[in-house]
Each structure stands twice: as structure tokens, then as C-alpha cells.
């Protein structure tokens, strides 16, 4: 029998950080993970450079059934706390854009930081460990696993969401929550590219690899970032961000001319270059391929701009200001960066992350119904929620 004060299930961002912090409080801590390697999502994140936090992180950057829930943890362990830790380890980093901080070298620096913190706190990490059964005892919890039996006073569930099943994602945390009578909100893929209906897909596939500056709007939320055309549909930061707000059947509104007045530009072209073709005029603002493909998409005859009547001119300007497109779905968990939904925050204390129903049962990180925007927010939630639980586990 392996006896620990705290067992953490899941050696990802939240689990490792929580384990180290609980260990620093003098608790004996074991981390169990079924995967061969720890921190695999961290290693893959940020294109291998890990966008480990965001300088502007606040509760407003998160989706949750209770928008106030994440305030407490985020304000007690902030992005500046994690940035200090990164600096303490001498890890070089830079701001890429919009407050997003990335390692200069490699995401492995963040995994090494977490391992080192765990070592300092004498945390015992076991990989390739299948959790077969979890039950409540008078003293805490009993776990039977493929690596033997464990007993602990506090159990922390940090098994993440469902995205990237090939990296070891499972619904374990949701099932365990349900086993203990906690409500789990429906899950769906977030920060995920859109797939398109066949007709749009065929035409827009011509633009595969092209990115344009956009405002993307859905369900009263707007992001100003790039939209990337791919051979499967629409991606890029604007689309990933808005995907978390999109529900099947919703229409996306894309403003493809955020920096210039397209109607004004067309009126000017009609005055100054009346013989220029629509595609020639559009090529002033967009890559050539975009101009041609958008003409095809809208069945615009590529004629000199002087031949456009006011209805046609309005239609062209209207399209670029508010291109409405209905995706036929998303790429799903296969490529999603996060999972929306999860353990209902009404079931947890926002201060401790402990279940209100079951003493000393904690849920942290992505398994909880707290999902950040693209840009380092999800890791900050892992650190903040992990830290909060570690003070009480
Ligand atoms: P995480 O998924 O990290 O860890 C869960 C752990 O639990 C895993 O080690 C898994 O093996 C283990 N586990 C699962 N089921 C188990 C079971 N049944 N038994 C035992 N162990 C089990 N975020 C961000 O802020 N900046 C970024 O740059 C990126 N980039 C990024 C890229 C890609 C490709 C993805 C998929 C995701 C991102 N993210 C991100 C999101 C970020 O990776 C994610 O939100 C955090 O890793 C969540 O941390 P957790 O510790 O909660 O789960």
C-alpha cells in the first residue's frame, strides 16, 4: 500500500504545478498519470514554444457558466507570479503579440521547471499508471491502479479535457466527478478550426495558406485577429477564438476590411480608376488570390468598376464588411486546443477548488468548466487553479 497525504491524478500543467505547491507545504504528494510521458500538451503547445501565460489575463478572458468563478484563483496566483517563477529559472521569453508570453527556446523549459519544482518538494511521479478504481474511505480516498494501491487524505483530479485524444486525453475526470455525484456540464471542442459546407469549401480551398486581417463575430462576441484559409475550412487565431462562442447552426460574421472603408475605396476607384477591374481594385487591399476567389464566391462578374451600379457596389462593400458564413462544423477534439464545459463550478469552492459535496476532493485545470481564450490563458488557469487547490489539499 502506497500512502500519501495527497494524490494528484494527471501529470499535466495543473497537476504538476499543484503537486509541487502542495509538496512545498510539507504534504507528501504522489502524481499518477496513465501516459508514458508527463506534460505532453505543454511540449506541443505554442508551436513548441509554450505560450505559458498572458500579461493581461483577467476573468474576462474565460468562458464559464459562472463568469465570476475564476476570479479568486486568478487573483491569488497571478500571471506575474508565474512570470517571476519563469524568470527565477532563467528561462528566456518574449511577448509575441497581445500580451502572449512564449519561451524563446522550447516548451521543454516549462516542463523542466515543473519537474524541478516537484523534485524540490519531494513529489513522487508515476507514469503508465492506469487508475482502475477510486473510492471514499473514512480517512480520505483509496485508489486501485495498475501500479498498486494508494491511499490519501486529499485527491486532486487534474486529468484535463478531451482534446487531442492521441496525447492521452480521456473523460476520466468527468466520470469521477459523476461517480461522486457532481454535475458535469456538456463538453464540446473549443479553439478549433471550422469545417465548411462542400460548395464554400471547394471555392475557398483556393486560398489555402492565405491569412487576412479580420473582425470575427458570433453571439455578441468579436475578436480582431487573422483568419487563415485552409484546405479544410477556416482557421487562424480569429476563427479559433470565435469557435469557443459558436454553436452548431450559428452564422459567423466576418469583417474583412477592419482597417479601411471599403465603400469609400470603391467610390474612389470609380472616380479615379474607372476602367480598373474589380479584382484589380480589390488587389490593392487583399492578396490577388483573395480578390479572385471572393469574386467567384459571390458570382461577381469581373468588370470595370465604372460599370457597377450602386446596388452592386453596395453588395460588394457589404460583403467585405459583413461576410456571413455558416460553417458545417468544427474539426472537433482531434485538433481542438481546449474542451469547453466540464465539472460544473457550482459544485466547487472558487477559493479552494474543493468539491462542496465531498471533503478533500479537488478538481483543477481544464477538467473544470473554465475555458480560456487563445493566448496563454489556459495555462494561467492551470497554474492559478492548481495553486489554489494546493493550499488546501
Ligand atoms: P492536461 O491535458 O495538460 O493534463 C492532463 C493529464 O492527465 C495528462 O497528462 C493526461 O495524460 C492525464 N490523464 C488523462 N486521463 C487520465 C487517466 N484516465 N488516468 C491517468 N491520467 C490521465 N494553452 C495555453 O495557455 N497556451 C498554449 O500555447 C497552448 N497551446 C496548446 C496547443 C495544443 C496543440 C493544445 C492541444 C492545447 C494547447 N493549450 C494551450 C491548452 C493547454 O494545453 C491546456 O489547457 C492545459 O494543458 C490544461 O492543463 P491540465 O493540466 O488541466 O490538462
TrEMBL record:
Domain of life: Bacteria
UniProt keyword annotations, A-Z: FAD, Flavoprotein
Domain (RsdA/BaiN/AoA(So)-like Rossmann fold-like) ranges: 5-391
Annotated RsdA/BaiN/AoA(So)-like insert domain residues: 188-338
Pfam families in alphabetical order: HI0933_like, HI0933_like_1st
Entry cofactors: FAD
Signal peptide (from-to): none
Keyword Flavoprotein: yes
Tagged with keyword Flavoprotein: yes
UniProt name for this protein: NAD(P)/FAD-dependent oxidoreductase
Provenance organism: Alteromonas oceani
